[in-house]
C-alpha cells in the first residue's frame, strides 16, 4: 500500500469518490479518512459546491468534481460511494455499473420498485457485479451472530421473527409513509437477510396514536409480514418514545429462541433514590457506528480484491425487494388487511 | 377465629366446599389445608366418589357430599370453590348465587358467551355479589405491580401491549381452538385486567407451523386484539417450544415501556463449556404457584369480611368478556381478517 | 384443625405466645394472624403492657400475660416466639427449653458466645430439641435454591463465597460494631448454612469511609472469613448507599459459579430521558418478607408434627457459632490482621 | 496520506517497525496491515529470522531488519512496536527513547521495578515523551466509559473497587507468581487508570485451591490492594474455571455503584431442556480485540500528530507502578499480611 509496491498499475489505496457530502456523506468521508484501512477519499462532489470544497480541503489529496458524472468517470476514482438524495441513486448507480466501477449506494436503491429493478437489470446486463447497498445492520456484530446462528441450523426451523424499532424522537413532518420508507425499511432488509426469502404480503395494524404522535401520524404502529414460505414477522415501530434508540430482534425457532438488541447498555449503575439501570443511546450512532465502519471496511476490502461486493452486503436485488415491500407496506397503511407484495423474477 | 370468638354464629374458619377434586381441585384442597389462613375444607364432592372420599380422608373434619347441589346447599359450607369440568360451571355458579354463597369458579365461567351472560344476569338479579373467577394471574406479584403502574399513570397513555405465552409442550390433541380457550384466554383476561376496557375485534395470524406442531395445529400463532379505545394487543402463543414455561408482557406507554416476565430465573450460573444462564421452569407451577395461593387467600379474606370478592379478582363480567372474545378468536382462526367481538351491555 | 377433630386433647391450631411486641414482634403477630396456617396468637406480653394489650385486642382470642415467665409456663401456649430485646433472649430461650416448649428466637441467641453456649448446653441437657433461631434468610427461595445447588454437588468444590450487603441508609449511631452484629451476622449465618462448617478466622479491611459515613464509622467495609476447610468468604458491607436494599451471594465452585440476589427487580422500565432499569427496594421487607412468612410457617408445621425445628432452620448451635464469629469480627475491626474465632466443641 | 501531499518530507503512512513476531507481534502486524488507518508495517525483526521473513513477505513493502538495534535506528521506521520477550523490553524501550522514536511497548515495561524506573528516567532525561505501554484495557469501551464516569464525579467519592478476572484454563506451569505478573497485572494497571493514585500495600488471601489447580498453585486467589488515599481494591483471580473468559469491575461510589463486564454475551437464547442464557468467550480475544485495535489506532494517530502518546494510554510511569506493585504482590503470596509497595518519587 505504498510506493514500494511491486504492482505499480494498482492504486496504493482504493481511491473512493463520494457523491453527496451532507450529513451521511460527510460521515463517510471522515470514516474513510480516519478509520478505513486501504482506502482514501480522492474526489467528492455535491450540489452545494462550497460544501464539497470544504470537505475536500479537510482531506489530503482530495479534489472536487464538478458533477456526479465527472466523478464516476474520473481516472482517479476506483470506486464510488453514493450519499446523494435518494431520487438520484438509480441513475448514479447505473452510471457506476456502466463505468465498471464498484459502488456502495446508500439506501434506498431507487424511489420505486421499477427503478430499482432497472438497476438489477443493468447490473445483470453488464455481466459483472458492482452494486453494494448501504443496509449496514448486516455488519452489526449481533446481527451477524444471529444470522450465523440461523444459517447454522442451531435454532431449528424458524416460524416467527419479532422486530422492534424505537427512536427517542423524530423530526417534524415524519409522516406514516416515512415510518415505512425510513424506519421499517431496515427491518424489511433484515427479514431478507435473516430468512433469505422474499416477503409475500404485508399488513399494517394501527393502534390509537400516542400523545406525541404528530397530527395524522400513527405512532406506534405494527407491521406484519408473511414470507414466501409462510413465516410471520412482526415489526413494531415506535419513533417518539422520548426514551432512546433501540433495535431488537427475536427469532422463534424449533430448537431455540434467540434475541439480540437487549443489551445496548454497557455500564450498569445503581443510583441514589433506589434506581438501578443504564442509559439507552439517544440515537442510532452508538448502536450502529461500528456497523457502518465494518460495512465500509468490508466494501473496501472487496474492491481491493476485485470481488467488489462483500459477503454480508446487501445487493441491488435486496434493494429491489425492499422497494417492492415498502410500496406494499405504504398501501397497507390504509388497506386494513394483508396487501400482496409484487415481486418480478430475478434476472 | 377460635372458640373464644364473641360472635359464635360465625364459623371459626371459612368452611369451603370444593366441587371436583381432579388435579386442580385436589391442589386447591391441599392449598387450603396447608397454606390458606382462615379457611378449611369442610366438604368435597366429585363424580368419582372414591376420589372424593380419599381426599376427604386426608383432611381433618372434611366430609363428602353426594352431589354438587347438596354441597352448595349444605349448612356446613360457607363458600364454594368450583373445580369441576367447565361444562358444569354455569349451573353450579348460578346455584351458588341462588344459595347466597360466595363462589370461586375456575375458568371458564361457561362454555359460551350466552351461558356466561346468564351468570352475569343471575348475579345482577340476586342483588348481591358472589362470583369470583379463577384468573389467578391477576394475583401474580409482577402482574399486580404492572397493573398498579398502569393505573397510576406513570407509564402515560398505553398504545400497545405485547404478550407472549410459551409452554414446553402440550398434551396430544391440543388443537388450535384449545390454544384459544386454554392458553390465550389468560391473556384475554389480562387485557381486560390491565386496560379496563373490552376487546372489539380479533385477528389470527398463522405462520408456517413448527416441526413439533401436531397435524392441523398452528403452533406458534399470533393473535391480534383491538380494544374499544383502539389499543392493539399482540399475543404470541408457542406451546411446543421444548424449552420451558414463560409468560411475558410488555406495555408501550407514552411515558415508559414496562416489561414483566423476563426474570423467571433465580440462580444464575456459569457452567463448564463456556455457558452462562439459568433454568426456565418446565410448567406454570413455579411461575404462578404464589399467584394461586394469593388468589385463594384474598378470596377467603373477602368471604370472611363479607365483601365476597377480592379487589383484584376477576368477576362474572370478566368471564363473559373472555367467553365472547374467545368465541371471536376461534372464528378468527379461519377468517384471515379481523373478526368483531360481540359484547352485550353490562346489566 | 376444628372442633370435629377426633383428638380433642390437641389444640386445633398451634397456640403461639409472643414475647415482645415491638416492630418485629408486632409483625410476627400480624403474620400469624393473617398468613400462617395452623397457628394463632394466643398470648402476648411486653415490657410496655399497654402496647401488649393493644396488640392482643386486635387478635380474636388473644390475651396478655403479665410476664415472659407466665407466658412460657401458660397452659394455653403451645410454642413461644421471642421478639424481646436481645439481652433477654438467653434466659427466655432456656426457660422455654425447661418448659419443654418449642421456641422461635429472633437473633441474636445471646449477647456473647458464653451465653449462647449455655443455651446449646441447656438444650443438650434436656434431651429434646426446642430452639429455632430467626435467621430467616435460610427460607428465602433464592438462598434455598443456592443451598440445594451446593449440597447437590452440581457446583463442584467451593473455594470462595462473595457476599454483598447494602442498605440505603442506617439510623444515627450505627457504629462499626453494629455493622458486625446487625448486618454481617446475617452473612455469618449464611456461611454456616451454605458451607456447613465453622469459621476459623476473620479479618476486617477498612477503606477510607464514604462521605455519608458517621464520625468513626467505616462504611463501606470488607470482612474476610476463612473457614475450617480453608475456604474464603468476602463480605462487603455498605449500609449508607443512599440507593436501596440489596443482598447478593456468589459461589465460586469448580463446576460452576452461581449468583443470587441480582434480580430484585420485577418490572423493568424504559423511561423518558434515555434510562432503562428498575427500582431497588428501600429496605429488607420486599426482599425478605416471603422468607419471614416461610420461616414461621415451617416452624408452625414443625411444632404441629412434633419435630419442633424445621429442616432449614438455624439452631442454637448456629446461634453460638454466629456469636463466636461476631466476637472475633469485632476484635478484627481494630486488629489489622486475621483474628482467630474460638469455638468450643459441640456438646 | 498520498503522493499528492504537500509535505513530502513526511511519510505517507506512519512506518512501523515491529520487534518480535511471535503470537502477539504477528497479531499486531496483521492488525496494522488490515485494520489500522494511517500506518503500515515497514520493518520487522525477530530472533527467528525465518519467521520474520515469512511475516515480512506477507506485507507489501515490508522488509526484515537484522536486529532490534538496526530496526530502531532505521530511516524507514518512524515508530516502534515492541513485542519481544519481556526481558528485552527495558533496553529496547530506552533505545527507542534515545533514537527519538515513539514506541508502543507490550507489557511488562521491565522485569523489575529498578529497570522500569530506568526507563522512566531515560524518558525524563530525553526531554520528550516516547513510551506507550500496552495495557490495552484502557481502550476497551466499557473501561473507558467507567473511567469517564469516575472522572466526571457522577459516582461521587470512590471507596472500593471489586475486580474479577477469570480464565477458562491456563497452560501447564502457570504458577502463583504468573497469576500476579500475567493476570493481576492488568487489574493493577486498571487501579492506576481508574483511581489515578499509587497502590500502597497488597495482601494475598489464599483459599483452599480448587481441584483443577496445579500442584502448589493457589487458584482461585484473592488480592487486596490499599491505595495512597486509603481505597480498597479486591482482585479475585480464578484462572481455571473451565468456563470462559470474564473480566468484571464494580465501583462503589457515594453517588452510585457502577459495574462493567457482566454483559459479554450478545445473543441470548432459550434452548430445548429449559435452559436460557448465552455463551462466554473462551479467551480474551472476543472481549478485548476491539481494545487492541483502538489502542494501536490511537497510538498511530498520536504518532502522526506528533504527540506520540494517546490520552488514554499507559506510560512508562504506569509501567513502573505496575512493576513495583507486582513485586510486592509476589512477596504477599507468602507473607500472610499486607506488604508495602515501595514507590520512588516520579522524576
Automatic annotation (TrEMBL), chains A, B, C, D:
Keywords: NAD. Residues 14-131 form the Gfo/Idh/MocA-like oxidoreductase N-terminal domain. Gene3D superfamilies: Dihydrodipicolinate Reductase, domain 2, NAD(P)-binding Rossmann-like Domain. Transmembrane segments: none annotated. GO terms for molecular function: nucleotide binding. Residues 143-258 form the GFO/IDH/MocA-like oxidoreductase domain. PANTHER family: INOSITOL 2-DEHYDROGENASE, PTHR43593. This is Inositol 2-dehydrogenase. It comes from Brachybacterium phenoliresistens.
Amino acid at each position: 500500500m505504498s510506493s514500494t509496491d511491486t504492482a505499480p498499475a494498482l492504486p496504493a489505496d482504493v481511491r473512493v469518490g463520494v457523491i453527496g457530502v451532507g450529513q451521511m456523506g460527510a460521515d463517510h468521508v471522515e470514516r474513510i479518512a480516519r478509520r478505513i484501512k486501504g482506502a482514501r477519499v480522492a474526489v467528492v462532489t455535491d450540489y452545494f459546491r462550497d460544501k464539497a470544497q470544504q470537505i475536500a480541503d479537510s482531506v489530503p489529496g482530495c479534489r472536487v468534481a464538478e458533477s456526479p458524472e465527472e466523478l464516476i468517470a474520473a481516472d482517479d476514482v476506483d470506486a464510488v460511494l453514493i450519499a446523494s438524495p435518494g431520487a438520484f441513486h438509480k441513475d448514479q448507480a447505473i452510471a457506476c455499473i456502466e463505468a465498471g466501477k464498484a459502488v456502495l449506494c446508500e439506501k434506498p436503491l431507487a424511489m420505486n420498485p421499477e427503478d430499482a429493478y432497472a438497476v438489477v437489470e443493468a447490473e445483470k446486463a453488464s455481466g459483472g457485479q458492482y452494486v453494494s447497498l448501504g443496509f449496514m445492520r448486516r455488519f452489526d456484530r449481533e446481527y451477524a451472530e444471529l444470522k450465523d446462528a440461523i444459517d447454522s441450523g442451531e435454532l431449528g426451523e424458524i416460524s416467527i421473527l419479532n422486530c422492534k424499532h424505537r427512536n427517542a424522537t423524530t423530526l417534524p413532518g415524519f409522516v406514516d409513509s416515512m415510518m415505512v420508507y425510513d424506519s421499517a425499511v431496515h427491518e424489511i432488509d433484515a427479514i431478507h437477510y435473516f430468512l433469505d426469502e422474499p416477503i409475500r404480503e404485508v399488513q399494517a395494524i394501527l393502534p390509537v396514536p400516542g400523545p406525541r404522535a404528530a397530527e395524522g401520524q400513527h405512532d406506534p404502529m405494527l407491521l406484519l409480514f408473511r414470507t414466501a414460505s409462510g413465516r410471520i414477522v412482526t415489526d413494531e415501530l415506535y419513533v417518539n418514545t422520548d426514551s432512546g434508540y433501540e433495535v431488537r430482534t427475536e427469532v422463534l425457532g424449533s430448537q431455540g429462541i434467540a434475541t439480540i438488541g437487549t443489551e445496548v447498555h454497557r455500564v450498569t449503575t445503581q443510583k441514589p433514590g433506589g434506581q438501578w439501570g443504564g442509559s439507552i443511546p439517544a440515537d442510532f450512532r452508538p448502536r450502529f457506528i461500528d456497523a457502518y465502519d465494518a460495512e465500509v471496511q468490508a466494501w473496501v476490502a472487496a474492491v481491493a480484491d476485485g470481488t467488489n461486493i462483500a459477503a454480508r452486503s446487501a445487493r441491488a436485488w435486496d434493494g429491489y425487494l425492499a422497494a417492492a415491500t415498502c410500496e406494499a407496506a405504504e398501501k397497507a397503511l390504509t388497506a386494513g388487511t394483508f396487501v400482496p407484495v409484487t415481486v418480478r423474477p430475478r434476472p
